[in-house]
Design brief:
Length: 194
């Protein structure tokens, strides 16, 4: 079912947020995080959720709004939520790009931007899972779900889908390897400077 796929994608997104949280903790200790991993995560968020995941949710919300406008109003404004996700991601990407361009930025300010992105992304997911998905599951008919499924593209998640298994496994392994190498390098630097 479509909601099961979206929930699985939320778990995958959370895995990336865990990696990002770890890099933030390193950054806040004054150690250089792995910006290659951070940029890879930003790139993923710029493509998959925005181009594939959110449009699927938007289709479901449009059906919910048509089927039960009162419930849709109670659930909230999904389009606004998704625009806020895009805005936060853009702000986050700009902060990281400023660091990588050696522009002067306040470490605390960048940390706050990254933390805000993580916290609010998790809040957005929680809101969808707590309010939006249950409302859609309750209000939509089997025919609604069939129509939604027929309108969806067949694009799999480039990092986690089974359809892109070889590519996604390699990319996922690469991100995790980069994170592990960066952790080992930072530990080595921290030990030698202690």
């Amino acid at each position: 079912m479509i909601v099961d796929l979206l929930l699985r994608e939320h778990r995958n997104i959370d895995l990336l947020l865990v990696v990002l949280q770890r890099e933030l903790e390193i950054f806040e200790k004054g150690i250089r995080p792995d910006y290659e991993v951070i940029r890879a995560i930003i790139s993923y968020f710029e493509v998959y959720p925005e181009v594939y995941h959110h449009p699927q949710e938007d289709l479901i919300f449009a059906k919910l709004k048509a089927r039960d406008p009162e419930v849709a109003t109670i659930v909230g404004d999904l389009a606004l939520e998704h625009q806020e996700v895009v805005d936060r991601l853009h702000h986050f990407a700009q902060a990281i790009d400023a660091i990588l361009a050696d522009r002067e930025v306040l470490r605390e300010g960048v940390g706050n931007i990254v933390r805000d992105f993580i916290v609010r992304e998790r809040h957005h997911i929680m809101w969808e899972e707590r309010d939006f998905f249950p409302a859609a599951l309750k209000a939509l008919s089997a025919q609604d779900w069939t129509e939604i499924a027929s309108a969806l593209t067949g694009h799999g998640d480039p990092l986690f889908s089974k359809t892109a298994a070889e590519t996604s496994d390699a990319l996922r392994a690469h991100i995790l390897q980069l994170a592990q190498e960066a952790d080992a390098e930072r530990r080595s630097v921290a030990l030698s400077s202690a």
